[in-house]
Design brief:
The complex is a heterodimer of chains A (367) and B (358). By secondary structure, chain A is an alpha/beta fold. Helix content of chain A is 65%, strand content 8%. Chain A has a 4-stranded mixed beta sheet, sandwiched between helices. Chain B folds into 2 domains: 7-48 and 163-357, no CATH class; 55-144, abc type-2 transporter like domain (abc type-2 transporter like fold). Chain B has a 4-stranded mixed beta sheet with strand order 2-1-3-4, sandwiched between helices. The longest helix of chain B is centred in the middle third of the chain and has 31 residues, at 165-195. The radius of gyration of chain B is 27 Å and the shape is elongated. Classes of the chains: A alpha/beta (367), B alpha/beta (358). At the A-B interface, helix 2, strand 4, helix 6, strand 5 and helix 7 of A face helix 2, helix 4, strand 4, helix 6 and strand 5 of B.
């Protein structure tokens, strides 16, 4: 491989990037936007859930019960419905997430120590329904204990690595993986497919440029851009979103570089196989972005997936990177301590290099 | 007048034929219309779940009493947990750090006297952490209770009695797939003509601007509708999700939704010159549209300012329509507001792009 050739190719690609400020701006803005969107817009916890309250008991006891729900940050009770029919309508139309019904005999049965409260939930959003139900149970348990229930167990719970229980902390490190997958795969798949589509490759065939030099030169500028994005994203994670970086920065940069190379090579492979930009972009979206979002354990835990799909996730590079990123940020581990996760990523890099080399023959350049 | 209309329609027909041929001639493109939506549907259908059905839980039982053993049996009885025993807390914590287990349940040596027990969960996956805490809490309290609680909660879940996450996600996928496919196709097929220089060639033909746009959009709209039907069939037959609402309402809602997604695609094409730019910008727009739609993350949990932004998201309205149609069984006239908003956003984006295309 002639370094001068590589440099020429990379320089050409740089000019290409710089001459197209819109694309460049998008590539630099995208990570920041994604980070802010995910960091601010996504809350997996609920607070102030709109739940309709229907008090059929109208007693001091029932008012005390509802006051408890009011006091909990999880609920925002709505007292605007005076019949079960109205409640049903409100849930049907999505005005409230559920309804709490205190039956007529609540006060009497509470005296006897066997009161009941009904909770109707809109089950469409199953996860929210589960969370609302759990919070309701907590409120009732606390109230019951105050009224003389002897707690059978005292459970003290702690959330390690995220003591304040903010979903932001768990999400932001994962978003960085998503960013790199997008920037890496999308960019590279488009740039090579573009040369193929516009017929520029045919012209390059008359030059002494080899396949390796061509690919290498193409990838260098995007690699630099991707690493730049990583720096921006990490800085924003630490300083804007207050995500603690407990592990080593060099470790993070190291695995990020490997991951970026992996997704870039994936993009290169896709574009060589697809040959046109529209198809390449679609495939790289389905091949890299979606798996990075869905099959990486970023928001959806892998162990809850069907076993077949769990095996599929082993083929998704983002799976390893998300684990590493979360572990380095929150758990303070090093990539070496997690060699079981780092190694597959390196292996993927090797396999992809070999695959791209094989397929690059299709480019028709010198070997 | 009617003569020119006939000519116009003939021209439109010619362009439509060209567009269809171009889209479907390439076997890879035919593949693209069917396979990526299917992959998305299947992966989402199986992968997207917030519920925890299998969690590896570390157990540190230093009490080793009859009581603690019966509680351990209760955890086992939930059917959601695989227990791993650890000799002490340090070993369990190491396993937690390595991600081998999601949570630790610890009975201290003096458990029988104090009735205190400790649960530690891994906060690096905040949703699983919450769900596991809830499950363990419920199972343990229920098993330990000697008498029923003073205030019992009777719960019922409407529309989705078993709280299946899939029922929530799959109608949403329909909205996502259609958005991604049609928006990108529209934007890129217009920009492609520009990049390859064929737009200039079209400009010297008698083809009008409106005809050009309609010729570009109609095939994409048909592809979008095809994807809606494809997903509808698989959702109901394969994933067995009930479709309780009115089918005409699905068609009306989808058409209005397509109006806005094509409009946004067209608008993107007017801001870009190359397919690379178009793709980037499309992606730049799709991501917020998806995240802000309430597709996976409820809008009500977002900060107020972000909630205002979601009003501009056509996906948000379409999601309400499809979810209600599938699960709540709504009718043709139940979604006037959503229809109106989608029409408004569609007309606004179409109008703006027509202005810009001049």
């Amino acid at each position: 491989m002639n370094l001068q050739h590589v440099r020429a190719m990379a320089r050409k690609e740089w000019w290409h990037l710089l001459r197209d400020p819109r694309s460049l701006a998008l590539m630099l803005l995208m990570p920041t936007m994604l980070l802010f969107l995910f960091g601010y817009a996504i809350r997996l916890d609920i607070s102030q859930a709109p739940v309709a309250a229907l008090d059929l008991s109208r007693s001091a006891e029932s008012r005390q019960l509802l006051a408890r729900f009011d006091a909990s940050h999880a609920f925002a009770l709505v007292r605007a419905h005076d019949s079960r029919r109205a409640l049903r309508q409100a849930i049907q139309h999505g005005e409230v997430w559920g309804a709490l019904i205190v039956p007529q005999d609540y006060a009497r049965r509470l005296q006897e120590g066997r009161a009941r409260v009904q909770l109707l939930l809109d089950g469409v959003d199953a996860n929210t329904a589960r969370l609302v139900r759990n919070y309701a149970l907590l409120v009732l348990q606390a109230l019951g204990e105050e009224q003389g229930d002897v707690p059978a167990l005292v459970i003290r719970d702690r959330v390690y690595y995220n003591e304040t229980r903010e979903s932001r902390l768990a999400i932001v490190p994962g978003v960085i993986a998503l960013l790199m997958a997008v920037i890496g795969a999308l960019m590279t798949s488009l740039t090579i497919a573009r040369e193929m589509e516009l017929g520029n490759l045919v012209m390059l065939r008359t030059t002494p440029l080899t396949r390796g030099e061509f690919l290498f030169g193409k990838l260098v500028p995007y690699f630099v851009l991707g690493m730049l994005d990583l720096v921006v994203a990490t800085a924003a994670a630490v300083w804007v979103f207050d995500v603690p970086l407990r592990g080593s920065l060099p470790g993070l940069v190291g695995v990020s570089a490997v991951f970026l190379l992996v997704v870039m090579l994936q993009g290169a492979l896709i574009s060589i196989l697809a040959g046109n930009q529209l198809l390449a972009s679609q495939i790289s979206l389905v091949q890299t972005f979606l798996p990075a979002f869905l099959l990486s354990g970023f928001v959806f835990a892998i162990e809850n997936m069907p076993v077949v799909l769990q095996y599929v996730t082993y083929l998704v590079p983002a799976r390893y990177y998300v684990t590493l990123s979360k572990a380095i940020f929150l758990k303070g581990l090093t990539p070496l301590a997690l060699w079981g996760v780092t190694l597959p990523l390196l292996l993927m890099l090797l396999i992809l290099v070999l695959m791209v080399r094989r397929r690059a023959r299709k480019l028709g350049l010198l070997p | 007048m009617s003569g020119s209309l006939v000519v116009g329609l003939r021209r439109l027909g010619a362009l439509l034929r060209k567009e269809f041929l171009l889209l479907l001639r390439d076997p890879r493109m035919r593949f693209f219309v069917v396979v990526p939506p299917l992959i998305q549907l299947i992966i989402f259908g199986y992968a997207a779940t917030f519920d925890v059905r299998h969690a590896d839980i570390g157990l540190v039982d230093q009490a080793a009493s009859r009581e603690s053993r019966s509680l351990v049996a209760a955890i086992h009885g939930t059917g959601h947990c695989r227990l791993q025993r650890h000799a002490d807390m340090a070993a369990a914590e190491a396993a937690l750090a390595r991600g081998r287990i999601r949570a630790i349940v610890r009975f201290a040596p003096d458990f029988d006297r104090t009735r205190r027990l400790q649960i530690v969960v891994d906060g690096t996956d905040s949703n699983s952490a919450q769900v596991i805490l809830g499950q363990l809490n419920r199972a343990l309290q229920q098993a330990a209770a000697t008498q029923p609680p003073r205030i019992e909660l009777v719960e019922r879940n409407w529309f989705n009695p078993n709280l299946e996450d899939r029922w929530y996600f799959i109608p949403g996928i329909m909205a996502n797939v259609v958005l991604i496919a049609t928006l990108i196709l529209t934007a890129m097929s217009v920009v492609r003509e520009r990049e390859l220089g064929t737009l200039e060639r079209l400009m010297v033909t008698p083809l009008g601007r409106l005809e050009f746009v309609i010729g570009k959009l109609l095939p994409v709209a048909l592809i979008g509708l095809f994807d809606v039907l494809l997903i509808m069939v698989i959702a109901t037959l394969w994933f067995e999700i009930p479709f309780r609402g009115s089918f005409p309402a699905l068609l009306v809602g989808s058409l209005l939704y397509l109006l806005s997604s094509l409009g946004i695609g067209l608008l993107i094409s007017t801001y870009t010159r190359t397919q690379q730019q178009a793709m980037l910008l499309a992606f730049f727009v799709i991501m917020p549209l998806v995240i802000l739609s309430g597709f996976a993350f409820p809008i009500a949990n977002m900060p107020r300012a972000v909630q205002w932004l979601t009003w501009l998201d056509p996906l948000r309205y379409y999601l309400v329509v499809v979810r209600d149609l599938f699960l709540k069984g709504s009718g043709l006239f139940d979604h006037g507001f959503e229809y109106a908003m989608m029409t408004l956003l569609g007309l606004a984006s179409m109008g703006l792009s027509m202005l810009r295309m001049r």
